[in-house]
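Hi team,

As requested, here is the filled-out complex form for the iron/sulfur cluster run. I kept the field names the same as last time so the parser does not choke. Let me know if anything looks off before we queue the next batch.

— J.
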Amino acid sequence: PQHPYTRALLSAVPLPDPAAERRRERIVLLGDPPSPAAPPPGCTFHPRCPKARDICRTERPLLQLAASREVACHFPGD
Ligand code: SF4
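And here is what came back:
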């Protein structure tokens, strides 16, 4: 996954292998989801995104190709 939200969601999926499950690193998102009635400017995920930078707070990311996938993020990937 290239989008930080998708990476956080997938990090919450339990693994069927107990050894791998013990090593699994979860990405815990802090804060509350924004109100859909008053979404924040820029990227609507920026208040909770661990990768957010200044541009995320003002410019909505457009779909772009990253690692052969379409993702709406200014800083896709790792
Ligand atoms: S655009 Fe910025 S805030 Fe939005 S998901 Fe990407 S890094 Fe996070």
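Two things worth flagging: The mean pLDDT is 95. The beta strands are 63-66, 69-72.

Thanks,
J.
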